[in-house]
Amino acid sequence: MKTEYIDITLPIKPGMLRWPGDALVRFNKIKVMKKGAKNNLSSISLGSHTGTHMDAPLHFFAAGKSLDRMPIEAVVGPARVLEIRNKECVNAEELKRFNIRKGERLLLKTGNSGFIKQGKFRKSFIYISHSAAKYIVSRGVRTLGIDYLSVGGFKKDGTEVHRILLGAGIWLIEGLDLSKVKPGKYYLFCLPLKTVGLEGAPARVVVRKIKGF
Questions:
Q1: 19 - beta bridge partners?
Q2: Which of 107, 115, 162, 166 is the most exposed place for a label (fewest CB within 10 A)?
Q3: CA contacts within 13 A on the Cβ side of 38
Q4: Are strands 184-192 and 41-45 parallel, antiparallel or unpaired?
Q5: Which is the catalytic residue, given 49, 53, 59, 162?
Q6: 3-class DSSP state for residue 164?
Q7: CATH superfamily of this structure's domain 5-209
Q8: Domain chopping of the chain, boundaries
């Protein structure tokens, strides 16, 4: 039987969605066959938190782990996609109905999935609240993903939520495209660039539905 994989990665391209102030994506054509070169060759310039990417503790802690020190088990293995209905933020009360277990990998599908592929940044995206971050830590979650460029809000709970989650050793995946993914159990494959000594890097993320769920 054909195995269905769902790519939940935002394509990297010039002009794509980015956090205000982050580096622009630039593609530079060094060699072009149509102009007489023997091969095509390009260079890429982008920020470490471009599109679908991961955050390491170093992002908000000076002595935190960099992304190259992340255990691969954090981002490859069974995961659950949870559908969040609150239109403002992810809160602890809503999370309590999911019976979250220690060591889980969770991907949060919110209303952001309706506009994550738009090129224009939205300040009013759905974020993880302070109370939800504390609850996630208390449940012993291993890895957490969300469908916009930050787990914390633009004007509220941004830095604090990052510090709560990263400080507890939770690995973060941001900028997921969950628009075609239904809630349920999946096998997660998330492979960020192995950037030595950096606080984050773009990642290719794919999920496969686990049969029977």
A1: none
A2: 115
A3: 0
A4: unpaired
A5: 59
A6: helix
A7: Putative cyclase (3.50.30.50)
A8: 5-209
Residue located via tokens 């690995």? 171
pLDDT in tens, 6-52: 999 999 999 999 999 999 999 999 999 999 999 999 999 999 999 99
Rounded CA Rg of the chain: 18
139: helix, strand or coil: coil
* Cβ atoms of residues 51 and 174 within 8 Å: no
SS3 content of the chain, % helix, strand, coil (to 5): 20, 30, 50
Measured distance CA(186)–CA(87) in Å, rounded? 24
Which residues 6+ apart lie within 8 Å of 87 measured at CB?
A: 111, 126
Listed in order, strand segments (DSSP E) in the chain are: 5-7, 26-31, 41-45, 53-55, 76-83, 89-90, 105-109, 127-128, 143-146, 171-174, 184-192, 200-209
pLDDT at 148 over 90: yes
Yes or no: say if 115 and 122 are a contact pair by the CB < 8 Å rule: yes
Give 134's contacts (C-beta < 8 A, 6+ positions apart). Answer: 92, 164
Q: Is 67 within 8 Å of 73 (Cβ atoms)?
A: no
E strands in 85-196: 89-90, 105-109, 127-128, 143-146, 171-174, 184-192
Other C-beta atoms lying within 10 Å of the C-beta of residue 155:
9
94, containing H or E segment = helix 92-95
Top-confidence residue, 4 or 31: 31
- Name the DSSP letter for residue 56: -
Q: CB 88: neighbour CB atoms within 10 A?
A: 13
Catalytic, 59? Answer yes
